[in-house]
Amino acid sequence: MTNFHVIHASHADQASETRLLQALATTMQQLLEALADLLRQRSNRSCLAAELAQCSTRLWQLAQFLPASHGMRQQVSHLHKLLPALIQPQETAVQIRLMVPLWRLQQALPAALPVMAPWRKVGNTHPAALALLAAWWRGQSMPAAMPLQAVARQLAEAARQTTLPPPAVAALLSRWLALQEFERDEPQRQCSAGLLQRVVLVLLMPDVVGASEARRCWQLLWSHAQQQPLPADNAVACDDLVLLQAVQTDLARHRCQVLPFLQQAVAQPGTALLSQPVLMLHYRLPWLLQAAGQHGLARLAHLWQRCLLQHWQLRQPLTPALLGQLETLLQALDMTVWRSLSPLQIASAMLQLLQQWPPANTAVVASVPLSTGNTAAPVPLAGVPDLLAQSFTLLNRVREDWFSNAAMFVQQAPLLAAELHLLEQGAAAVKVQAVERFCSLLLALQHKAGQPRNAQEFPAQLLWRGHCHLIELLDEAAAWQDPQLDVGLVAELQAWQQQGVHEPLPAWCCAGTLAAMTTADLTKRLLLFVDKLAQTLEHPLRLAIVINPTVPATLLPLCETSLQPLLRFLAVEQLQETTLRRQAHQPMAIALELRLDLTDVGVAVELRAAGCTRAPDYQALKRLRHKLPPAVQRLLWRTLPGSGRSLHCTIGE
Amino acid sequence: MNMPLAIVCDDSVTLGLLLCRQLATLGYRVQYIAPEQLRLPLAENPALFCVELLGNHSNGFKLLRQLRRHHACRSLLLSASGRRTDIAWGRAAGADAVLLRPFTPAQLARCVTLVEA
Q1: Scanning A175, A341, A599, A625, which has its CA 20 to 30 A from the CA of A108?
Q2: Does the CB of B48 have a partner CB in chain A at under 8 Å?
């Protein structure tokens, strides 16, 4: 490798040689002056020693740009060798010995090395990384752009690891620059520029380029430095360099966005929940690293992505140990340390991560209603998103004209409601509250809109907009984003749903006409009652009613007066179980089902409430019996086989 | 001959570029658009629209639904999460095929052929 230094000595073009050497003059002059200043200081010995060492090293590095036979290079080397002695306490004699060559250097410099700054041109015309390498070489401070700084550091580090001494790389590159400047043949010039970009890539991404390609690049650069023309078929593709820059950009973005989260999480342990942007960054990270040829790191990043996803789904903050490991991963993303991570270290990091894995939530959805009216087997929580995505056959095919009028809507309403029920349960199970709330609202709205003899205008536009918004929410939830409710639309939907709650009953169901009450009238009156109840309780509440048409009209008024206390009782009971329902991953909205059938002894009533199975308070049941009309007999309480409870009674004259 | 246009829409420039390269080898004229820069309708009707499902500032499902309102092109949804949900919901959102990462160039070629058919 020492042969690299001979390049300059054997250089034929003296003009370019001189101009190349001029590049070092200003910097060397400044360094020499700084060195002299430091030698004059005697107060702070330890700081002085460190600065002297740094200053002298830079000077020595710069001197490597000079031909090996150059007198100044020899003087700088001599100065560099004297430095360790200077750090010793008895330094006076050494200082005198040092000052002499220093003085000679300062005298010789203006004549030997006129000013030139080739690296500035590199920065304008070639990869910024190279310019930064030069800046780093000169000991200048780096710009704030971390990835570029990383490239510069990596170049030097890679050169060290490929047994090329940094001065040799610098000499090659500066030689290349000189040749490039004086090259008049444009195709050769382009070949040369492409070659250099390839070398940068070889240094930074050896795994991507491959060993044979790397060897070929160095050989070409070596030949080129000896003024041999590059082969015409040397079509150096710069695509990989573009890819490298893209990887750098993506990784820099990753670091910039994850770092604030980490800092906040470390400052307030146990409180910082994983945000969606941080999760998304880790979703992409394994594939980025794989694209960059870092397969080991990619495997580690993939494990991290799964770990973070589980935390995000469980709404669980990262433990301090995990935060520490995440910080280590962030440091490992620095391109300058890619090659320093051994497979064993990566395996060890993966093992540590597995030891910190959060416990899986094995809760199940208690029941999932099917369109047939039955209930499916309990579904594991992890399977809920899959079940939902595969179950919606209608939801994604809804057309605007389905909501154009009540007649059209009623045809589709039952199937649509079945899917909405399923969605409501699923959303509650995986705790996507925005979807669950909106689904409950839509169910209530569609139920009301589908009722016969509804005095209100059919809300065609409102239903369609509500459906579109639901699909938007589902898209967001499916893409791991936090669904954002449209507050304005929710207010509009609620306003329509609550219309008529405070208004007097319409003429067709007023007291004077009760004798002519039909099942439709009873349904309407009960739904109005439930709407009022929901508003009083300030909680979503809906009622599904099935009345056997054989129930005589004469019994319907009696049914109404009997059912109202029952509905109120069950709704209040359900409201008290809100926390339990939430813990059991069940929807917050209270869903009641009423069924009326005709029997020999009167009208059989079954009032169901999905959710909790706890028996009501005995005293409360006793109080309820007192409130019910005498016509209500055989009041019974039952626990439903799946999850829920029901009240049974008979109403007879 | 005018080559068909393929548009790649991905939050990550790296992954977008990689896909562009692979599609170029399949005979497409490729164009990379960052999701936040995507303006619909597009100036030219693409033959193939490839979109990443999950993004920091984008949502592949929504983009596909919007695309469907303006263009009747073939669409390919890319996902790296490995969930069956992505496939089911992706198809519901209008994707002709869902390709799970990581995929080999051969798998991409097969998928594109399938979509074209």
Answers
A1: A175
A2: no
